[in-house]
Design goal:
Layout: H1 2-14, H2 20-28, H3 37-46, H4 49-59, H5 74-81, H6 83-101, E1 103-105, H7 106-128, H8 134-142, H9 146-154, H10 157-168, H11 174-182, H12 186-196, H13 201-207, H14 217-229, H15 237-250, H16 254-274, E2 299-301, H17 315-331, H18 335-349, E3 354-361, E4 366-374, H19 377-383, E5 385-387, H20 395-402, E6 407-409, H21 419-429, E7 434-441, E8 444-452, H22 462-485
Antiparallel strand pairs: 1-2, 3-4, 3-8, 4-5, 6-7, 7-8
Helix pairs in contact: 1-12, 2-6, 3-5, 3-6, 3-18, 4-5, 5-6, 6-8, 7-8, 7-9, 7-14, 7-16, 8-13, 8-14, 9-12, 10-11, 14-15, 15-16, 17-18, 18-22
Protein backbone atom coordinates (compact mmCIF):
# COMPACT_ATOMS: atom_id res chain seq x y z
CA UNK A 1 0.00 0.00 0.00
CA UNK A 2 2.73 2.45 1.01
CA UNK A 3 4.60 2.12 -2.30
CA UNK A 4 1.41 2.49 -4.34
CA UNK A 5 0.41 5.56 -2.36
CA UNK A 6 3.87 7.13 -2.78
CA UNK A 7 3.64 6.46 -6.51
CA UNK A 8 0.33 8.30 -6.70
CA UNK A 9 1.58 11.27 -4.67
CA UNK A 10 4.49 11.54 -7.10
CA UNK A 11 2.16 11.12 -10.09
CA UNK A 12 -0.08 13.94 -8.85
CA UNK A 13 2.87 16.24 -8.17
CA UNK A 14 4.17 15.72 -11.71
CA UNK A 15 0.77 15.95 -13.41
CA UNK A 16 0.34 18.90 -15.76
CA UNK A 17 -2.28 20.88 -13.87
CA UNK A 18 -2.30 24.52 -15.04
CA UNK A 19 -0.55 25.98 -11.99
CA UNK A 20 0.44 23.04 -9.78
CA UNK A 21 4.13 23.16 -10.50
CA UNK A 22 4.53 26.87 -9.77
CA UNK A 23 1.99 28.39 -7.40
CA UNK A 24 0.96 25.36 -5.33
CA UNK A 25 4.46 23.97 -4.88
CA UNK A 26 5.79 27.44 -4.03
CA UNK A 27 3.04 28.13 -1.48
CA UNK A 28 3.38 24.73 0.14
CA UNK A 29 7.12 25.26 0.69
CA UNK A 30 6.67 28.49 2.67
CA UNK A 31 6.35 28.29 6.44
CA UNK A 32 6.62 30.84 9.25
CA UNK A 33 10.22 30.28 10.21
CA UNK A 34 11.93 33.62 9.68
CA UNK A 35 11.35 37.29 8.93
CA UNK A 36 11.22 36.73 5.18
CA UNK A 37 8.26 34.34 5.23
CA UNK A 38 5.56 37.01 4.77
CA UNK A 39 7.58 38.57 1.95
CA UNK A 40 7.99 35.19 0.24
CA UNK A 41 4.27 34.53 0.54
CA UNK A 42 3.43 37.94 -0.94
CA UNK A 43 5.90 37.38 -3.75
CA UNK A 44 4.44 33.98 -4.71
CA UNK A 45 0.88 35.35 -4.75
CA UNK A 46 1.89 38.36 -6.86
CA UNK A 47 3.34 36.09 -9.54
CA UNK A 48 -0.24 35.02 -10.29
CA UNK A 49 -2.44 38.05 -11.18
CA UNK A 50 -5.65 36.05 -10.82
CA UNK A 51 -4.67 34.80 -7.36
CA UNK A 52 -3.61 38.31 -6.31
CA UNK A 53 -7.00 39.75 -7.27
CA UNK A 54 -8.86 37.03 -5.38
CA UNK A 55 -6.76 37.43 -2.22
CA UNK A 56 -7.45 41.19 -2.26
CA UNK A 57 -11.15 40.46 -2.76
CA UNK A 58 -11.13 38.30 0.37
CA UNK A 59 -9.09 40.88 2.29
CA UNK A 60 -11.73 43.51 1.55
CA UNK A 61 -14.74 41.32 2.29
CA UNK A 62 -16.90 42.06 5.32
CA UNK A 63 -15.83 38.73 6.84
CA UNK A 64 -12.09 39.55 6.93
CA UNK A 65 -12.33 43.32 7.01
CA UNK A 66 -15.30 44.34 9.18
CA UNK A 67 -13.92 47.88 9.54
CA UNK A 68 -14.18 48.24 5.73
CA UNK A 69 -10.84 50.10 5.64
CA UNK A 70 -9.80 49.33 2.06
CA UNK A 71 -6.68 47.21 1.50
CA UNK A 72 -4.92 47.71 -1.83
CA UNK A 73 -1.80 45.55 -1.56
CA UNK A 74 -1.27 41.84 -1.09
CA UNK A 75 1.52 42.59 1.38
CA UNK A 76 -0.91 44.55 3.54
CA UNK A 77 -3.49 41.76 3.23
CA UNK A 78 -0.94 39.28 4.65
CA UNK A 79 -0.43 41.53 7.67
CA UNK A 80 -4.16 42.07 8.30
CA UNK A 81 -5.42 38.53 7.66
CA UNK A 82 -2.42 36.65 9.01
CA UNK A 83 0.21 34.50 7.32
CA UNK A 84 -1.51 31.14 7.85
CA UNK A 85 -4.93 32.32 6.65
CA UNK A 86 -3.59 33.93 3.46
CA UNK A 87 -1.35 30.96 2.71
CA UNK A 88 -4.15 28.43 3.18
CA UNK A 89 -6.61 30.52 1.15
CA UNK A 90 -3.98 30.89 -1.57
CA UNK A 91 -3.37 27.15 -1.64
CA UNK A 92 -7.09 26.41 -1.77
CA UNK A 93 -7.70 28.93 -4.54
CA UNK A 94 -4.76 27.58 -6.55
CA UNK A 95 -5.94 23.98 -6.16
CA UNK A 96 -9.52 24.84 -7.10
CA UNK A 97 -8.36 26.90 -10.08
CA UNK A 98 -6.28 23.94 -11.26
CA UNK A 99 -9.30 21.64 -11.10
CA UNK A 100 -11.48 24.18 -12.90
CA UNK A 101 -8.89 24.76 -15.61
CA UNK A 102 -8.10 21.12 -16.22
CA UNK A 103 -10.00 18.74 -18.47
CA UNK A 104 -11.76 16.81 -15.74
CA UNK A 105 -14.49 14.25 -15.36
CA UNK A 106 -17.77 15.82 -14.36
CA UNK A 107 -17.66 13.94 -11.06
CA UNK A 108 -14.99 16.44 -9.98
CA UNK A 109 -17.45 19.32 -10.23
CA UNK A 110 -19.93 17.32 -8.14
CA UNK A 111 -17.24 16.71 -5.52
CA UNK A 112 -16.30 20.39 -5.54
CA UNK A 113 -19.94 21.37 -5.05
CA UNK A 114 -20.10 18.99 -2.09
CA UNK A 115 -16.84 20.39 -0.69
CA UNK A 116 -18.04 24.01 -0.77
CA UNK A 117 -21.25 22.93 0.92
CA UNK A 118 -19.36 20.99 3.62
CA UNK A 119 -16.98 23.90 4.23
CA UNK A 120 -19.77 26.48 4.55
CA UNK A 121 -21.77 24.28 6.92
CA UNK A 122 -18.70 23.53 9.06
CA UNK A 123 -17.80 27.21 9.40
CA UNK A 124 -21.40 28.21 10.22
CA UNK A 125 -21.74 25.50 12.85
CA UNK A 126 -18.45 26.49 14.48
CA UNK A 127 -19.49 30.14 14.50
CA UNK A 128 -22.82 29.26 16.14
CA UNK A 129 -20.89 27.57 18.97
CA UNK A 130 -18.48 30.50 19.42
CA UNK A 131 -15.49 28.54 18.08
CA UNK A 132 -12.30 30.32 17.01
CA UNK A 133 -10.21 29.63 13.90
CA UNK A 134 -13.25 29.59 11.61
CA UNK A 135 -11.23 29.89 8.40
CA UNK A 136 -9.07 26.91 9.29
CA UNK A 137 -12.24 24.88 9.86
CA UNK A 138 -13.67 26.07 6.54
CA UNK A 139 -10.52 25.17 4.59
CA UNK A 140 -10.17 21.78 6.28
CA UNK A 141 -13.72 20.85 5.27
CA UNK A 142 -13.22 22.30 1.78
CA UNK A 143 -10.20 20.07 1.14
CA UNK A 144 -11.52 17.00 2.95
CA UNK A 145 -11.98 15.14 -0.37
CA UNK A 146 -8.85 16.53 -2.03
CA UNK A 147 -7.40 13.08 -2.84
CA UNK A 148 -10.62 11.93 -4.48
CA UNK A 149 -10.88 15.07 -6.64
CA UNK A 150 -7.26 14.75 -7.70
CA UNK A 151 -7.70 11.06 -8.52
CA UNK A 152 -10.62 11.62 -10.92
CA UNK A 153 -8.58 14.34 -12.67
CA UNK A 154 -5.41 12.27 -13.04
CA UNK A 155 -6.51 8.63 -13.47
CA UNK A 156 -6.72 7.13 -16.95
CA UNK A 157 -10.01 5.82 -18.34
CA UNK A 158 -9.17 2.15 -17.78
CA UNK A 159 -8.47 2.64 -14.07
CA UNK A 160 -11.56 4.82 -13.71
CA UNK A 161 -13.74 2.10 -15.23
CA UNK A 162 -12.26 -0.55 -12.93
CA UNK A 163 -12.82 1.53 -9.81
CA UNK A 164 -16.37 2.52 -10.82
CA UNK A 165 -17.28 -1.11 -11.45
CA UNK A 166 -15.91 -2.13 -8.05
CA UNK A 167 -17.71 0.75 -6.28
CA UNK A 168 -21.01 -0.27 -7.88
CA UNK A 169 -20.57 -3.86 -6.65
CA UNK A 170 -22.87 -4.36 -3.67
CA UNK A 171 -20.33 -6.68 -2.03
CA UNK A 172 -18.00 -3.73 -1.37
CA UNK A 173 -18.44 -0.37 0.26
CA UNK A 174 -16.59 2.53 -1.43
CA UNK A 175 -13.44 2.33 0.69
CA UNK A 176 -13.17 -1.45 0.25
CA UNK A 177 -13.51 -1.00 -3.50
CA UNK A 178 -10.77 1.66 -3.49
CA UNK A 179 -8.37 -0.55 -1.53
CA UNK A 180 -9.15 -3.51 -3.77
CA UNK A 181 -8.38 -1.65 -7.02
CA UNK A 182 -5.83 0.99 -5.95
CA UNK A 183 -4.19 -0.60 -2.94
CA UNK A 184 -5.15 2.38 -0.76
CA UNK A 185 -8.17 4.51 0.14
CA UNK A 186 -8.62 7.89 -1.54
CA UNK A 187 -8.75 9.39 1.96
CA UNK A 188 -5.16 8.13 2.36
CA UNK A 189 -4.21 10.03 -0.78
CA UNK A 190 -5.75 13.20 0.69
CA UNK A 191 -3.74 12.72 3.88
CA UNK A 192 -0.50 12.15 1.94
CA UNK A 193 -1.03 15.23 -0.26
CA UNK A 194 -1.90 17.41 2.72
CA UNK A 195 1.33 16.28 4.37
CA UNK A 196 3.45 16.77 1.24
CA UNK A 197 2.08 20.25 0.56
CA UNK A 198 2.37 21.29 4.22
CA UNK A 199 -1.30 22.20 4.32
CA UNK A 200 -4.03 22.86 6.90
CA UNK A 201 -3.08 21.33 10.29
CA UNK A 202 -6.66 20.70 11.38
CA UNK A 203 -7.33 18.77 8.17
CA UNK A 204 -4.24 16.60 8.73
CA UNK A 205 -5.41 15.98 12.29
CA UNK A 206 -8.96 15.16 11.15
CA UNK A 207 -7.70 12.63 8.60
CA UNK A 208 -5.26 11.03 11.05
CA UNK A 209 -6.08 8.00 13.18
CA UNK A 210 -4.21 9.64 16.06
CA UNK A 211 -6.56 10.64 18.92
CA UNK A 212 -7.00 14.38 19.35
CA UNK A 213 -8.91 16.61 21.75
CA UNK A 214 -9.31 19.38 19.15
CA UNK A 215 -13.02 20.25 19.38
CA UNK A 216 -12.96 21.81 15.92
CA UNK A 217 -12.80 18.39 14.25
CA UNK A 218 -16.46 17.73 15.02
CA UNK A 219 -17.60 20.70 12.89
CA UNK A 220 -15.62 19.39 9.93
CA UNK A 221 -17.17 15.95 10.50
CA UNK A 222 -20.72 17.35 10.56
CA UNK A 223 -20.07 19.63 7.57
CA UNK A 224 -18.95 16.65 5.51
CA UNK A 225 -21.88 14.52 6.72
CA UNK A 226 -24.41 17.24 5.84
CA UNK A 227 -22.92 17.62 2.36
CA UNK A 228 -23.26 13.87 1.84
CA UNK A 229 -26.87 13.57 3.05
CA UNK A 230 -28.61 16.83 2.07
CA UNK A 231 -28.78 16.06 -1.67
CA UNK A 232 -31.58 13.67 -0.68
CA UNK A 233 -33.40 16.55 1.04
CA UNK A 234 -33.29 17.86 4.59
CA UNK A 235 -36.31 15.70 5.49
CA UNK A 236 -34.72 12.48 4.24
CA UNK A 237 -34.06 9.84 6.88
CA UNK A 238 -30.27 10.17 6.58
CA UNK A 239 -30.36 13.98 6.81
CA UNK A 240 -32.76 13.94 9.77
CA UNK A 241 -30.45 11.54 11.60
CA UNK A 242 -27.43 13.83 11.07
CA UNK A 243 -29.43 16.93 12.06
CA UNK A 244 -30.60 15.21 15.25
CA UNK A 245 -27.00 14.33 16.18
CA UNK A 246 -25.95 17.87 15.36
CA UNK A 247 -28.70 19.37 17.53
CA UNK A 248 -27.33 17.36 20.44
CA UNK A 249 -23.79 18.65 19.83
CA UNK A 250 -24.93 22.27 19.54
CA UNK A 251 -27.36 22.00 22.43
CA UNK A 252 -30.09 23.52 20.23
CA UNK A 253 -33.65 22.42 19.41
CA UNK A 254 -33.92 20.35 16.22
CA UNK A 255 -36.00 23.03 14.46
CA UNK A 256 -33.39 25.73 15.18
CA UNK A 257 -30.61 23.41 14.05
CA UNK A 258 -32.38 22.76 10.74
CA UNK A 259 -32.73 26.52 10.27
CA UNK A 260 -28.93 26.91 10.63
CA UNK A 261 -28.40 24.10 8.12
CA UNK A 262 -30.83 25.65 5.61
CA UNK A 263 -28.99 28.97 5.90
CA UNK A 264 -25.76 27.12 5.12
CA UNK A 265 -27.37 25.72 1.97
CA UNK A 266 -28.06 29.24 0.72
CA UNK A 267 -24.65 30.61 1.66
CA UNK A 268 -22.71 27.77 0.03
CA UNK A 269 -23.61 28.93 -3.48
CA UNK A 270 -22.32 32.44 -2.72
CA UNK A 271 -19.12 31.03 -1.24
CA UNK A 272 -18.46 28.85 -4.31
CA UNK A 273 -18.92 31.88 -6.57
CA UNK A 274 -16.54 33.98 -4.44
CA UNK A 275 -13.87 31.30 -4.96
CA UNK A 276 -14.36 31.51 -8.73
CA UNK A 277 -16.22 28.17 -8.90
CA UNK A 278 -19.61 29.40 -10.12
CA UNK A 279 -19.74 26.49 -12.58
CA UNK A 280 -20.36 24.03 -9.71
CA UNK A 281 -23.27 26.01 -8.24
CA UNK A 282 -25.96 24.19 -10.30
CA UNK A 283 -24.79 20.93 -8.70
CA UNK A 284 -25.26 22.12 -5.13
CA UNK A 285 -28.19 20.85 -3.04
CA UNK A 286 -31.03 23.32 -2.85
CA UNK A 287 -30.32 24.68 -6.32
CA UNK A 288 -33.23 24.38 -8.78
CA UNK A 289 -30.92 22.87 -11.37
CA UNK A 290 -29.45 20.34 -8.92
CA UNK A 291 -29.37 16.79 -10.23
CA UNK A 292 -28.55 13.84 -8.03
CA UNK A 293 -27.01 11.73 -10.76
CA UNK A 294 -23.68 12.80 -12.22
CA UNK A 295 -21.85 10.68 -14.74
CA UNK A 296 -18.15 10.45 -13.90
CA UNK A 297 -17.34 9.09 -17.33
CA UNK A 298 -18.21 12.21 -19.29
CA UNK A 299 -15.26 14.54 -19.86
CA UNK A 300 -15.80 18.25 -19.85
CA UNK A 301 -13.98 21.55 -19.47
CA UNK A 302 -15.41 22.96 -16.27
CA UNK A 303 -14.28 26.54 -16.94
CA UNK A 304 -11.88 28.02 -19.49
CA UNK A 305 -8.26 28.33 -18.44
CA UNK A 306 -7.48 31.96 -17.65
CA UNK A 307 -5.03 33.62 -19.99
CA UNK A 308 -2.12 35.63 -18.64
CA UNK A 309 -3.23 39.14 -17.68
CA UNK A 310 -0.56 41.81 -17.82
CA UNK A 311 -0.85 44.77 -15.44
CA UNK A 312 -1.93 48.12 -16.84
CA UNK A 313 -0.85 51.51 -15.44
CA UNK A 314 -3.26 52.66 -12.74
CA UNK A 315 -2.47 56.13 -11.29
CA UNK A 316 -5.17 55.82 -8.63
CA UNK A 317 -3.82 52.46 -7.47
CA UNK A 318 -0.32 53.98 -7.30
CA UNK A 319 -1.60 56.61 -4.91
CA UNK A 320 -3.50 54.05 -2.86
CA UNK A 321 -0.44 51.81 -2.54
CA UNK A 322 1.67 54.74 -1.41
CA UNK A 323 -0.98 55.43 1.25
CA UNK A 324 -0.76 51.78 2.29
CA UNK A 325 2.99 52.25 2.58
CA UNK A 326 2.56 55.21 4.92
CA UNK A 327 0.25 53.11 7.14
CA UNK A 328 2.82 50.30 7.21
CA UNK A 329 5.60 52.73 8.15
CA UNK A 330 3.62 53.96 11.14
CA UNK A 331 2.92 50.49 12.49
CA UNK A 332 5.85 48.33 11.41
CA UNK A 333 9.63 48.32 11.16
CA UNK A 334 9.67 45.37 8.79
CA UNK A 335 11.98 46.37 5.95
CA UNK A 336 11.04 43.29 3.93
CA UNK A 337 7.36 44.26 4.03
CA UNK A 338 8.18 47.79 2.91
CA UNK A 339 10.27 46.61 -0.03
CA UNK A 340 7.57 44.12 -1.02
CA UNK A 341 4.91 46.84 -0.92
CA UNK A 342 7.01 49.09 -3.16
CA UNK A 343 7.60 46.24 -5.62
CA UNK A 344 3.87 45.60 -5.69
CA UNK A 345 3.30 49.28 -6.51
CA UNK A 346 5.81 49.12 -9.35
CA UNK A 347 4.21 45.95 -10.70
CA UNK A 348 0.47 46.52 -10.23
CA UNK A 349 0.37 50.33 -10.06
CA UNK A 350 2.78 51.33 -12.81
CA UNK A 351 1.92 48.29 -14.92
CA UNK A 352 5.36 46.68 -15.23
CA UNK A 353 5.43 42.92 -15.80
CA UNK A 354 8.27 42.11 -13.40
CA UNK A 355 9.83 44.03 -10.52
CA UNK A 356 12.81 42.96 -8.43
CA UNK A 357 14.93 44.19 -5.56
CA UNK A 358 18.56 43.06 -5.46
CA UNK A 359 20.81 43.40 -2.41
CA UNK A 360 24.31 44.79 -2.72
CA UNK A 361 27.03 42.77 -0.95
CA UNK A 362 30.12 45.01 -0.75
CA UNK A 363 32.49 42.20 0.26
CA UNK A 364 31.73 40.23 -2.90
CA UNK A 365 31.08 43.36 -4.98
CA UNK A 366 27.89 41.72 -6.20
CA UNK A 367 24.16 42.36 -6.50
CA UNK A 368 21.82 39.38 -6.05
CA UNK A 369 18.06 39.15 -6.37
CA UNK A 370 16.30 39.17 -2.99
CA UNK A 371 12.58 39.85 -3.66
CA UNK A 372 10.58 39.78 -6.85
CA UNK A 373 6.99 40.09 -7.99
CA UNK A 374 5.20 39.71 -11.30
CA UNK A 375 4.83 37.30 -14.17
CA UNK A 376 7.46 34.56 -14.50
CA UNK A 377 9.44 36.51 -11.92
CA UNK A 378 10.76 33.43 -10.11
CA UNK A 379 13.12 32.71 -13.02
CA UNK A 380 14.39 36.29 -12.85
CA UNK A 381 15.01 36.00 -9.10
CA UNK A 382 16.96 32.76 -9.46
CA UNK A 383 19.31 34.17 -12.08
CA UNK A 384 19.66 37.83 -11.12
CA UNK A 385 23.29 38.00 -9.96
CA UNK A 386 25.87 40.45 -11.33
CA UNK A 387 29.31 41.67 -10.36
CA UNK A 388 29.71 45.40 -9.75
CA UNK A 389 32.60 47.60 -8.75
CA UNK A 390 35.29 46.00 -10.87
CA UNK A 391 33.69 46.26 -14.31
CA UNK A 392 33.65 49.40 -16.44
CA UNK A 393 30.80 50.32 -18.81
CA UNK A 394 28.31 48.41 -16.66
CA UNK A 395 24.87 50.03 -16.14
CA UNK A 396 24.44 48.38 -12.72
CA UNK A 397 27.83 49.71 -11.67
CA UNK A 398 26.90 53.20 -12.86
CA UNK A 399 23.53 53.31 -11.11
CA UNK A 400 24.61 51.78 -7.81
CA UNK A 401 28.15 53.07 -7.27
CA UNK A 402 28.86 55.96 -9.62
CA UNK A 403 25.98 58.32 -10.45
CA UNK A 404 23.55 56.73 -7.99
CA UNK A 405 20.56 57.79 -10.08
CA UNK A 406 17.87 55.82 -11.91
CA UNK A 407 18.40 54.69 -15.49
CA UNK A 408 16.14 53.72 -18.38
CA UNK A 409 18.14 51.24 -20.39
CA UNK A 410 17.05 51.45 -24.05
CA UNK A 411 18.45 50.98 -27.52
CA UNK A 412 19.77 54.53 -28.02
CA UNK A 413 22.23 54.21 -25.10
CA UNK A 414 23.33 50.61 -25.55
CA UNK A 415 26.56 51.73 -27.22
CA UNK A 416 27.56 53.54 -24.02
CA UNK A 417 28.26 50.19 -22.39
CA UNK A 418 30.52 47.24 -23.05
CA UNK A 419 29.06 44.90 -25.67
CA UNK A 420 30.26 41.83 -23.74
CA UNK A 421 28.74 43.10 -20.50
CA UNK A 422 25.40 43.88 -22.15
CA UNK A 423 25.30 40.44 -23.77
CA UNK A 424 25.73 38.77 -20.38
CA UNK A 425 23.03 40.99 -18.88
CA UNK A 426 20.54 40.42 -21.71
CA UNK A 427 21.15 36.64 -21.61
CA UNK A 428 20.05 36.62 -17.97
CA UNK A 429 17.21 39.14 -18.26
CA UNK A 430 15.89 38.14 -21.66
CA UNK A 431 15.73 41.82 -22.64
CA UNK A 432 17.91 44.89 -23.21
CA UNK A 433 15.26 47.41 -22.19
CA UNK A 434 14.55 47.88 -18.48
CA UNK A 435 14.45 50.34 -15.59
CA UNK A 436 16.95 50.31 -12.70
CA UNK A 437 17.32 52.57 -9.67
CA UNK A 438 19.55 52.46 -6.58
CA UNK A 439 18.55 52.29 -2.95
CA UNK A 440 21.11 54.52 -1.24
CA UNK A 441 20.86 55.53 2.43
CA UNK A 442 23.28 58.05 3.95
CA UNK A 443 25.50 57.71 0.87
CA UNK A 444 25.73 53.94 1.36
CA UNK A 445 24.40 51.76 -1.48
CA UNK A 446 21.97 49.16 -0.09
CA UNK A 447 20.58 47.58 -3.21
CA UNK A 448 18.96 48.10 -6.57
CA UNK A 449 15.43 48.08 -8.00
CA UNK A 450 14.81 46.56 -11.42
CA UNK A 451 11.66 46.40 -13.57
CA UNK A 452 10.74 45.48 -17.14
CA UNK A 453 7.99 44.34 -19.51
CA UNK A 454 9.90 41.39 -20.93
CA UNK A 455 7.12 38.76 -20.57
CA UNK A 456 4.55 40.80 -22.53
CA UNK A 457 7.06 42.43 -24.93
CA UNK A 458 5.18 45.72 -24.43
CA UNK A 459 7.30 48.88 -24.84
CA UNK A 460 8.43 50.93 -21.88
CA UNK A 461 7.45 54.61 -21.82
CA UNK A 462 8.31 57.90 -20.14
CA UNK A 463 5.27 57.92 -17.85
CA UNK A 464 6.14 54.45 -16.53
CA UNK A 465 9.74 55.51 -15.96
CA UNK A 466 8.65 58.55 -13.96
CA UNK A 467 6.36 56.35 -11.86
CA UNK A 468 9.22 53.89 -11.30
CA UNK A 469 11.48 56.77 -10.17
CA UNK A 470 8.80 57.99 -7.77
CA UNK A 471 8.36 54.61 -6.12
CA UNK A 472 12.09 53.97 -5.79
CA UNK A 473 12.55 57.45 -4.29
CA UNK A 474 9.88 56.55 -1.74
CA UNK A 475 11.94 53.47 -0.93
CA UNK A 476 14.89 55.64 0.04
CA UNK A 477 12.68 57.88 2.20
CA UNK A 478 11.09 54.85 3.86
CA UNK A 479 14.42 53.18 4.70
CA UNK A 480 15.85 56.46 6.01
CA UNK A 481 12.77 56.83 8.21
CA UNK A 482 13.27 53.30 9.53
CA UNK A 483 16.95 53.92 10.27
CA UNK A 484 16.06 57.03 12.29
CA UNK A 485 13.51 55.08 14.34
CA UNK A 486 16.05 52.38 15.12
Amino acid sequence: MVNKLKHWVQKVSEYDFPIFQSTINALSNISVEDDTSASELTSVILRDPSLSAKILKFANSSYYNPSQAKTYTVSRAVVLMGFDVVRDIGLSLAIIESFLGAKSRTIVSALMAKSFHAATQARNLARENGEKGLEEIFLAALLHNLGEMVFWCVADDELVDKLLTAMEDEEYDEEEAQESILGFKLADLTHALVSKWNMNKILADTLSDTPSDDSRKKYIHFGVKLAETLPDGIESEKAKKVCKQLAGQLGRPLGETKKIVREGLKQATEVASSYGASSVVPLMPGNDEFTKTVSPEKDTILEPVETVTYPEPDPLLQLQILRDLSVILKSSQDLNLIIETLLEGIHRGIGLDRALFALFTPIKSQIRGKFTVGINADTLLNHFSFNVGDVTNNPFNEVLLENQTSLWMRSNILDDYSRDVMKKISDVLGTRTFFIAPLVVNSHPIGLFYADRQPSKRPLDQESFEGFEHFTHQATLAVESLSRKK
